[in-house]
Amino acid sequence: MSEILSIVIPAYNEENNINLIYQELKKELKEIEFKIIFVDDGSKDCTYDKIQELAEKDNNIFGISFSRNFGKEAAILAGLKESKTELVVVMDSDLQHPPEVIHEMVKGVVEEGYDIVTTKRISRKGDPYFKSFMSKKFYKLINRLSDTKIVDGAQDFRIMTRQVVNSVLELDEYHRFSKGIFSWVGYDVKYIEVDSYKRIEGKSSWSFWSLSKYAIEGVVSFSTRPLRFATVFGSIVSVLSFLYLIQVIIEVLILGKIAPGYASTIAVVLFLGGIQLLALGIIGEYISRTYMQVKKRPHYFIKKRCGK
Ligand code: UDP
Ligand code: MG
């Protein structure tokens, strides 16, 4: 095996980007021998056909196709599992991750001795205002809640050594939040600041709903603090209710006040009901993950392969 570098590229409905990214990489990385591992995450368009066409022309292209859409995290996992080289890059297929940065990444690992070199975006141009606002809030929240720090603007564009890849593969959790996983494994990390670009072709597959799910994933996968929040908040509310109860008893027994008290009763009932539902919801998030983990289902199924 002559190559030392593999580039893992998850792709979901990216038929127009496969050729583009291939050409960009070929153009940028002339001096480096590299292999591309395309992971077609159950696309509904011709993404896999495009990959197959490339694999027939170029021996350094390797493609796998999932039996259905399993999500980007599963696609990254599959790509990492298939990789055999000493260095592995993970990048998106929509050209939002500038290929020229790979030179600097390789240098960071080979010459400067880092284990991971990843990118951090300085601007969010190309993203709608609301999305970048929510994203900032999300990083604040997760870093407050979790011991695993995640840098704001850190992207899923990184290079890592075999040692890091093997560590990441050892984490067999079903719900994979890769930003957290890459931070959790540790090692020496270097951040390169890059501009982010607008997607060239197609549209982002993230909806508001899927981003919210992703955010919950990030928090729940790496922190049990929300569970404690339920306990702490529950305790505070219980103490307050108890004090209020004493006040009510005093008012009725000693002051002889028999007030209608409808408003306050409803307020307390609704408030407590809300808190209870919230706490149950939080617990439910953890239980559902435990449930999925216990089933030990595979992360994905590979339906087709091309290249070698
Ligand atoms: N992707 C994937 N499976 C999915 C959704 C996305 O493999 O279910 C890939 C997608 O093809 C792209 C990368 O993950 O290469 C990032 O997706 P996207 O551009 O939609 O996300 P964003 O850049 O907005 O974070
Ligand atoms: Mg994108």
Explain what you see.
It contains 10 helices and 8 strands. The chain has helices at residues 18-28, 47-57, 72-82, 101-110, 129-145, 162-170, 178-184, 208-222, 225-253, 262-295, and strands at residues 5-11, 34-40, 61-66, 87-90, 116-121, 154-161, 189-194, 302-306. α9 (225-253) packs antiparallel against α10 (262-295). With 308 residues, it is of the alpha/beta class. The chain folds into 2 domains: 4-128 and 150-205, Spore Coat Polysaccharide Biosynthesis Protein SpsA, Chain A; 225-295. The termini are close together. Residues 92, 94, 96, 199, 204 line the site of magnesium ion. The site of magnesium ion (MG) has 5 residues, from loops.
Characteristic key phrases:
single chain; 308 residues; alpha/beta; Spore Coat Polysaccharide Biosynthesis Protein SpsA, Chain A; 2 domains; eight-stranded mixed beta sheet; 10 helices; 8 strands; 50% helix; binds uridine-5'-diphosphate; binds magnesium ion
Provide a compact summary of the structure.
The protein is an alpha/beta fold. The chain has helices at residues 18-28, 47-57, 72-82, 101-110, 129-145, 162-170, 178-184, 208-222, 225-253, 262-295; strands at residues 5-11, 34-40, 61-66, 87-90, 116-121, 154-161, 189-194, 302-306.
